[in-house]
Amino acid sequence: MKIHAWQISKPGGPEALEWSEREIEPQANDVLVRHTAIGVNFIDTYFRKGLYPAPLPIGIGAEGAGIVEAVGSGVTEFSVGDRVGYCGGTPGSYSEARFIDEASLVRLPDAINEEVSAACLLKGLTVAYLIFKTFPLNASHTALFHAAAGGVGLIFCQWAKSLGVRIIGTAGSEEKAALAYENGCDEVILYREQDVARRVRELTDGRGVDVAYDAVGKDTFEGTLGSLAPRGLFVSFGNASGPPPAVNALDLMSRGSLFFTRTSLMHYTSTRAELLALSRKLFEAIEHGTVKIHINHRYRLADAPQVHRDLEARRTTGSVIMVP
């Protein structure tokens, strides 16, 4: 079967994205999903630039949603016509359609449309494991969250605020700060104008935060370390500005016996049961109004290179999707 899709033959900038016709072949456990919406995430740029090495050429994109058009002989959970979403696995969502293993798919509830799924599944599952698994948050905690007006940040702020967490966010502009405040941030630090660690200490009477979530990487590493309370946890889960430096064990000790972890969604959804449990928790939060998904930018699938330019220039807020 032939479909049109974006692929990468060699690492590079947005111009490295190639629009091509590809032959795709199903396996017994595969489902053919015709995309109606495609999620855009910063991790896509890591694959394009070669930060996450992969055999080339390769498709790109980790998240999508659509309608099941065909199922393989070994498929047991899905039927033609089902509405489904997915995130993770082999890149390839920047496409008109694709075959994907049924183990990667979740069935969408009636209240969740395909655009919402494509806008939130990867980001929302990330927030779910950050809040409930990596560091179980409650009303006694104060958390620092970098890029609070981004797609992950807005979901985190709403969800954590519903638990009574005090949230200190960072943002790059007054406009983004206002968006973070609207979605639950108690305080927002303008990182281009203020020293993050110093401001965090001022806001916490010198103590620091219980946990800090950092998907920016290199540029925010020192500020994040300097913001933690004794025995606080540094959660690194992305590299938007480049990989963070190596962690010095003695430095963690001298700063107050700090903890450090580098997380990945795939390690929190490594079984079918874990994927379904976290996605159920996310969908229920959306259905109950605890979390509202902000789709602030829609592009055509044909405009994928421009999407990457805007994403890396930090011209986007909330969730970004493409439509075929």
Short description:
With 324 residues, this protein is of the alpha/beta class. Helix content is 30%, strand content 29%. Strands 3, 5, 6, 7, 8, 15 and 16 form a seven-stranded mixed sheet that branches. The protein has a six-stranded parallel sheet with strand order 11-10-9-12-13-14, with helices on both faces.
Description:
Helix content is 30%, strand content 29%. The chain has 10 helices and 16 strands. Strands 3, 5, 6, 7, 8, 15 and 16 form a 7-stranded mixed beta sheet that branches. The chain has a 6-stranded parallel beta sheet with strand order 11-10-9-12-13-14, sandwiched between helices. The chain has a 3-stranded antiparallel beta sheet with strand order 2-1-4, with no helix packed on it.
Overall pLDDT level: 96
Return the string of H and E elements.
Answer: EEEHEEEEEHEHEHEHEHEHEHHEHE
| Spans of at least 5 consecutive residues with low confidence | none
**SS content category:** alpha/beta
Oligomer designation: single chain
- Give the number of DSSP strands: 16
- How many helices? 10
- Choose one word for the global shape: globular
Taking the alpha carbons of the first and last residues, their distance comes to: 18 Å
Fraction of residues in β-strands = 25-35%
Radius of gyration: 20 Å
For the sheet with most strands, the description reads: 7 strands, mixed
**Helix coverage percent:** 25-40%
